[in-house]
Design a protein that fits this description.
The structure holds 2 protein chains of 2 kinds. By secondary structure, chain A is an all-alpha fold. Helix content of chain A is 67%, strand content 1%. A two-stranded antiparallel sheet of chain A has the order 1-2. In chain A, β1 and β2 form a beta hairpin. In chain A, α3 runs parallel beside α5, α4 packs antiparallel against α11 and α12 crosses α14. By secondary structure, chain B is of the alpha+beta class. Chain B folds into 2 domains: 135 residues, Immunoglobulins (Immunoglobulin-like, Sandwich); 280 residues, ABC transporter involved in vitamin B12 uptake, BtuC, CATH 1.10.3470. Chain B has a 4-stranded mixed sheet with strand order 1-7-2-11, with no helix packed on it. Chain B has a 4-stranded antiparallel sheet with strand order 6-5-8-10, with no helix packed on it. The chains are: A mainly alpha, B alpha+beta. The interface between A and B is large, with 61 and 57 residues. Chain A: Its main location: membrane. Chain A: It is a multi-pass membrane protein. Chain A: It is found in: Cell membrane.
Chain lengths: 340, 436
C-alpha cells in the first residue's frame, strides 16, 4: 500500500481557503495589533475567541436573537472583557499582562466548562444547532440564523479540491470578506497618526508619554480593537463546527502566536499568509504522517501517536522561528516585535 | 431523606446481593454493547448528563432515553458522563437503571415516587440535561466545621507541593528573568519518571523517587545547557525567550503523550485508607507528602540563607551585573538554579501525582497557572514570596470548594490573582519598586 501524495496535496489545498484558516488569520491579525504593533503581550486571545463563540451561540440559542444582534452581543462582551483585563494591567510591566490575560482566558474556559451553567453553556459537551436553517429551498420559508441569510441557491459550488455546498460557500465568502476588511482597516490605521503613536509605544513608551500622549488610553484602544478581531474570529471559527469548550484552551493562543510569528508580527499580510501556510502545511504534514503510518513506513508509531506529532512539530517550529527568524516571513528585521 | 431511608430498608439485603451477583455474572458474560456517547454524529439534538456520587463519577450506569418514537440505551463513561443524539426536539423520558448502580446506592428524591425516571424537554437550545440525585440510602452529613478543617488540611498539603514547583520557577525568574512556561513539563517529568521506575520497572518506591528526582535535576541542567544558555549567549530578549519556552512546553508535553499515552495511571500506594488523628483524617501518603515538602522547603531556605552559593543566588536575583562585578560566577549560579529548580519541580510532580491522584502526560500543565499565580501573588522573583503565594493558592483552591462547584475551584484562585494584581501588583512579599 503506497501513499497517495495527490490526495494529501488536495487536502492541503482545501485548507488554503477554508473558513478555519480565515478565523485563525483574523485572530492572528488581532494579535498583531496587540503584540506586533503595540507590544502588548496578550496571552488570552483564546478567551476573546471563546467570547465570540459563546456570545454568538448563546444569544442565538437561549435568547433567539437574529444574527446581527448575536454578533453585537459577542462584540460588546469582548469590549467589556478587554476593559476588565486592561484596567488593572496596562499600567504594569508587560509580563503582568501576559499572566492576567492567560488566567482570564482560563477562567472563561472553566466557566464555560462547569456543570453549573449547563442549561446555557452545554458544559463540557458545548453547544450546537445555532447555525440556523436554509429553510425551504425555493420559497425560503422557515429560514433563520446564519444559514438563513445565505443568498445562494442550493447546490454545489467551486471546482477542483474546493467543491462545497451552498452553506460552506457562503461561509467561506463571508469569512474572507471579513478578513480582508479587517486587514484593510488595520493597514489604514497603522499608517494614520494613531498607528504612529501605537508603534511609538512599542518602541519607547516613556518617549511617547513625554510627547504628551496618554499611553494608557492608546494601549486600551489597541487591546479592544485586537480583541474584537479575536471575537469575530471566534464566530467564524464555530460556523463550520460546534462550540466545544476544550477548543479554547491556552494551546489555541499558542497556535495563533505561531501563525503570527510565522508571517511576521508587525505586518498586515503576515498573519493572513501565516495562517494559510500554517494550515496548509499542517494538513499536508499530518496527512502524510497518518498515511505513512497506515502504509507501515513508521512502524514505531501508532495511529494515535501519529496524530500527536503535529503538536510537537508546532512547538518546535515556534521555538525555531523565535530563535532564528523572529521577524517572520514578511517582517522587517529593523521593525522587530521584540523590543524589551 | 427519611423516605429514602425507609425505601432502602424495605429491600432485604439478601436479594440485593443476589441481584448484584447476577449482574456481575451478566456483565462478565457479555461485553456491553453500549457506550458513553451514542448517535451524537447522527442527530443534531442531544440529551446528556452526569452520574456522580459525592463528586465521584460513576461509570457503567445504564440509562434508557425514550420519546418521540425513539429509544436509545447508553452507559455512563469513566468520567460519569453520557450523551446521546436524538432526532428531534420534544419530550423524552430518561430512565436510570438502578440495578447498575453500586450496592447500597440509589437515586434519591423525597418528592418523587420514581426518582430514577425523569422527564426532560429538548427545546430551542437543541440539548437537554438529565442529572440524577444519587446518594447512599441514608444521608450522611458532615458538620460544616469538620468540612472546613478537612479542606484546610488538604489546602495546606496542596499549597506545600505547589510551593516546591513555585520556588523553582521563582528562582529561575529571579536569576534569568525568564517566565518559564515549560516548568509544567518539568513537573510532569518527575511524576512520569517515578511511574517508569516504580511501576514499569517495578523498583522499590523510595528508590524510584530518588532516581526520578535525580533525573529531574538532570533534566533542568540539560534544558539550561542545551537551550537557555546558548540563547542567553546569543542575547535573545526575555519576551522571545518566554515564547521559546511556550514552544518547548508544547513540544515536550506532546512528546510525553507520544511515549506515555493519554491515560491516567497510579503510582504505588496511591489511594491508601485514611488514618484518624483526632478530628483530622489523613492518609499516610498525605502525611508523608506534607512532611517531605516541609523538610525540603526548610532545606531550600537553609540553602538560600546560609550557604555561600545560596547567598550568591540571591545576589544574582537582586542585580546580576553587580553580582558579576563582585566576582560571583553568574553562569554557575544559574546552572545550579536550574538543577535545583528541576529537582524541586520533579518532586512536586510526584507529590501532585499522589494528591490528584494519578500520573498523566499533561498533569503539570493543569497546575501551571496555579504555580504562576502563586509566584505572582508572592511577588515575582522572591523565593519566600512564592512559598506564601503557594499556601494562599492551595488553601483558597480547597476552601473555595465549600461554596464553589468543584469544577470551578481553579477559576477562584485565578480571580484572586487578578484582584491582587489590581490592588498590590508587587505581590504580598514583593518590594514596592517601580513595576510600571
Amino acid at each position: 500500500m503506497g501513499v497517495d501524495f495527490w490526495q494529501i496535496l488536495m487536502n492541503g489545498a482545501v485548507e488554503l481557503i477554508s473558513p478555519t484558516t480565515a478565523a485563525y488569520a483574523l485572530a492572528a491579525l488581532g494579535l498583531a495589533i496587540h503584540f506586533g504593533y503595540t507590544g502588548l503581550l496578550n496571552f488570552g486571545q483564546a478567551g476573546f475567541m471563546a467570547i465570540g463563540a459563546y456570545g454568538f451561540a448563546i444569544s442565538t440559542l437561549t435568547f433567539q436573537f437574529p444574527v446581527w444582534a448575536a454578533v453585537l452581543v459577542g462584540v460588546g462582551a469582548s469590549v467589556v472583557f478587554a476593559l476588565i483585563l486592561g484596567v488593572p494591567t496596562l499600567r504594569l510591566r508587560a509580563d503582568y499582562l501576559s499572566i492576567v490575560t492567560i488566567a482570564a482566558a482560563e477562567i472563561l474556559r472553566l466557566i464555560f466548562t462547569t456543570n453549573t451553567f449547563d442549561p446555557v453553556t452545554g458544559s463540557a459537551n458545548g453547544l450546537s444547532g445555532y447555525k440556523g436553517s436554509y429553510g425551504d429551498p425555493v420559497t425560503r420559508e422557515g429560514a433563520w440564523g446564519f444559514a438563513g441569510l445565505n443568498p445562494f441557491p442550493k447546490g454545489s459550488y467551486g471546482f477542483g479540491p474546493w467543491v462545497m455546498d451552498e452553506y460552506n460557500f457562503f461561509l467561506t465568502i463571508v469569512a474572507w470578506v471579513i478578513v480582508i476588511l479587517a486587514a484593510l482597516l488595520t493597514w489604514q490605521l497603522m499608517r494614520s497618526p494613531w498607528g504612529r503613536v501605537i508603534k511609538g509605544i512599542r518602541e519607547d513608551e516613556d518617549a511617547v508619554r513625554a510627547l504628551g500622549k496618554n499611553v494608557y488610553f492608546y494601549k486600551m484602544q489597541s487591546l479592544i480593537l485586537g480583541g474584537v478581531f479575536g471575537t469575530l474570529a471566534g464566530m467564524i471559527f464555530i460556523l463550520p463546527r460546534a462550540v466545544v469548550p476544550s477548543n479554547y484552551a491556552t494551546t489555541l493562543t499558542f497556535f495563533i502566536y505561531t501563525i503570527l510569528l510565522l508571517g511576521g508580527a508587525a505586518t498586515i499580510l503576515g498573519p493572513v499568509v501565516g495562517s494559510i501556510i500554517f494550515w496548509v502545511l499542517l494538513s499536508i504534514v499530518s496527512g502524510f504522517i497518518a498515511r505513512a503510518q497506515g502504509a507501515g513506513w513508521l512502524p514505531f508509531l501508532s495511529s494515535v501517536q501519529a496524530g500527536q506529532l503535529r503538536f510537537i512539530i508546532v512547538g518546535v517550529v515556534l521555538m525555531l522561528l523565535v530563535i532564528f527568524r523572529p521577524q517572520g516571513i514578511f517582517g522587517n528585521k529593523k521593525e522587530l516585535a521584540f523590543v524589551k | 431523606m427519611e423516605v429514602t431511608g425507609l425505601r432502602r430498608r424495605r429491600l432485604p439485603a439478601l436479594a440485593l446481593t443476589f441481584i448484584a451477583l447476577l449482574l456481575a455474572m451478566l456483565t462478565i458474560g457479555s461485553a456491553p454493547a453500549t457506550a458513553d456517547e451514542v448517535g451524537l454524529d447522527e442527530y443534531d439534538f442531544k440529551v446528556s448528563g452526569l452520574v456522580e456520587l459525592n463528586d465521584k463519577p460513576l461509570a457503567g450506569v445504564e440509562l434508557v432515553i425514550e420519546g418521540s418514537g425513539f429509544k436509545v440505551e447508553v452507559e455512563s463513561g469513566d468520567d460519569g458522563r453520557w450523551a446521546v443524539g436524538v432526532p428531534e426536539k420534544g419530550d423524552y423520558t430518561v430512565t436510570l437503571n438502578e440495578e447498575t448502580l453500586p450496592e447500597g446506592i440509589a437515586v434519591i428524591d423525597p418528592e418523587d415516587e420514581t426518582p430514577n425516571v425523569r422527564e426532560i424537554t429538548v427545546g430551542q437550545s437543541g440539548s437537554a440535561v438529565a442529572n440524577f440525585f444519587i446518594g447512599k440510602g441514608e444521608r450522611n452529613t458532615v458538620s460544616w466545621g469538620q468540612q472546613l478543617l478537612d479542606r484546610v488540611i488538604n489546602g495546606l498539603n496542596f499549597g506545600l507541593l505547589l510551593a516546591l514547583a513555585a520556588i523553582g520557577l521563582s528562582l529561575i525568574f529571579g536569576t534569568t528573568g525568564l517566565n518559564n512556561f515549560a516548568h509544567a513539563e518539568m513537573v510532569s517529568f518527575g511524576a512520569l519518571m517515578a511511574l517508569t521506575f516504580a511501576v514499569q520497572l517495578a523498583l522499590p518506591l523510595w528508590l524510584a523517587i530518588i532516581i526520578a528526582i535525580v533525573l529531574s535535576a538532570g533534566f533542568g541542567f540539560t534544558l539550561d545547557a542545551a537551550i537557555w544558555k546558548p540563547l542567553r549567549r546569543k542575547g535573545v530578549g526575555l519576551i522571545p525567550m518566554m515564547i521559546v519556552s511556550i514552544g518547548l512546553s508544547l513540544a515536550l508535553r506532546y512528546t510525553f503523550q507520544l511515549f506515555y499515552g493519554g491515560e491516567i495511571r497510579q503510582l504505588p500506594f496511591a489511594g491508601m485508607a485514611d488514618l484518624k488523628l483526632g478530628p483530622i483524617s489523613l492518609s499516610p501518603i498525605d502525611l508523608a507528602s506534607m512532611a517531605i515538602s516541609l523538610v525540603v522547603l526548610a532545606g531550600v531556605a537553609f540553602f538560600l540563607l546560609r550557604t555561600r552559593i545560596g547567598k550568591a543566588t540571591r545576589a544574582v536575583s537582586d542585580n546580576p551585573s553587580l553580582a558579576s562585578a563582585s566576582g560571583i560566577d553568574v553562569d554557575r549560579v544559574i546552572r545550579i538554579v536550574w538543577i535545583v529548580g528541576g529537582a524541586l519541580a520533579g518532586l512536586s510532580g510526584i507529590l501532585w501525582a499522589y494528591f490528584r491522584p494519578g500520573v498523566s502526560w499533561d498533569m503539570g500543565f493543569q497546575i501551571l497557572l496555579l504555580i504562576f499565580a502563586a509566584v505572582t501573588l508572592g511577588g515575582l522573583g522572591t523565593a519566600f514570596g512564592a512559598l506564601v503565594g503557594s499556601l494562599i493558592v492551595g488553601l483558597f483552591v480547597e476552601i473555595s470548594t465549600l461554596w464553589l462547584p468543584s469544577d470551578m475551584k481553579y477559576a477562584g484562585a485565578l480571580v484572586i490573582l487578578i484582584l491582587v494584581l489590581l490592588f498590590r501588583p508587587q505581590g504580598v512579599l514583593g518590594r514596592k519598586e517601580r513595576i510600571g
